[in-house]
Write a structure and sequence with these properties.
The complex is a heterodimer of chains A (about 160) and B (about 140). Chain A is built from three helices and five strands. Chain A is α+β, with helices and mostly antiparallel strands. Chain A has a domain of about 100 residues. In chain A, a hairpin with a 2-residue loop joins strand 1 and strand 2. The longest helix of chain A is centred in the first third of the chain and has 57 residues. Chain B has about 140 residues and is an alpha+beta fold. Chain B has one domain. Helix content of chain B is about 50%, strand content about 15%. Chain B contains two helices and three strands, in the order H-H-E-E-E. The chains are: A alpha+beta (about 160), B alpha+beta (about 140). At the A-B interface, helix 2 and strand 1 of A face helix 1 and strand 3 of B.
Chain lengths: ~160, ~140
């Protein structure tokens, strides 16, 4: 009777697995995850670099438009209404060189298919300082007219409507 | 460790390595492209600045005659200005000024309007301004 019970229990007892068994799958899964995580993080960095390039391109495009607009505006004023460069833009109405034109019409224009408007023009001892914005939004740009030459003072990331 | 376990682990690693390698290759190519684009953008900045400085050095006094003569002279002077290798320059004179267009490979064209009167080369124009409102050609 005793020998039968011992034989029976040994038949149904599960043997212990060897220590080397079953480690390969978790290890390979961890390695695979590590590889994929590393490459995905690198891809994130490269996407960020591309986004930075796109932002820079957009900024340069707006800078080119605003610079062209400033050239056009100052050129137009010098050719047809030179006295306005010596007055703040808020005081253009009734200026002697304005003739019959409305000052608002001179404070806006089109360049390269884009509309722009003059936010302010203020005379300075060296010349004048003007601020322009594109009607489509984006940054505003400030320019200084110093000794006859137009210099860009920089872009400001503010809304044109707030100015 | 049995054969099935080894096989599944090998397949898993091979698939992950292959996918990872492809992502790495794409990411490295995109990063290098973006870096090259930024370098070219800086070159274009330099070329635009150089063109404006060239104009200022070329003539800093008003020229005799109307603006159309000044525009023609500006175009001649800009055509002779040095330009970095790999960049292309186009000049399109119009009434009152000219479009300076610069192109670097792989980047959108940059263009700036240079007005003869704004630059101080003339003060009168015989014809009304035209042609600068249109979209870039």
């Amino acid at each position: 009777m005793t020998s039968w019970s011992i034989r029976q229990s040994s038949r149904f007892r599960r043997p212990h697995p060897p220590a080397s068994e079953g480690f390969l799958l978790p290890l390979s899964s961890a390695l695979a995850l590590l590889l994929l995580a590393g490459s995905l993080s690198l891809q994130t960095v490269s996407l960020e670099a591309r986004r930075h390039l796109q932002l820079q391109l957009q900024l340069r495009h707006q800078q080119d438009l605003l610079s062209s607009a400033a050239q056009q505006l100052v050129g137009r004023l010098r050719r047809h209404h030179p006295c306005l460069l010596e007055l703040p833009s808020s005081q253009w109405a009734g200026a002697p060189c304005l003739a019959a034109e409305a000052p608002e019409a001179l404070q806006q224009g089109q360049i390269g298919g884009h509309s722009y408007r003059l936010l302010s023009l203020a005379p300075t001892p060296a010349g004048a300082e003007l601020r322009l914005a594109l009607s489509s939004g984006g940054p505003t740009a400030a320019f200084a007219l110093v000794n006859g030459s137009l210099r860009e003072l920089g872009l400001r990331a503010e809304q044109a409507g707030a100015a | 460790m049995n054969f099935a376990e080894v096989l599944v682990a090998a397949l898993l690693l091979a698939g992950a390595s292959s996918g990872s390698l492809q992502i790495w290759a794409g990411a490295v190519a995109a990063s290098r492209g973006a870096e090259l684009g930024l370098e070219q953008l800086v070159e274009l900045d330099g070329a635009l600045l150089g063109a404006e400085q060239h104009l200022q050095q070329w003539q800093n006094t008003p020229m005799a005659g109307d603006c159309s003569q000044a525009v023609a002279a500006m175009a001649t002077a800009l055509a002779r200005a040095p330009l970095a290798a790999g960049l292309e320059r186009q000049l399109e004179p119009q009434s009152g000024g000219l479009w300076l267009r610069l192109q670097a490979p792989g980047l959108p064209q940059r263009q700036r309007w240079l007005d003869a009167a704004a630059l101080g080369y003339c003060s009168s124009s015989p014809t009304p301004e035209a042609g600068i409102d249109g979209r870039p050609g």
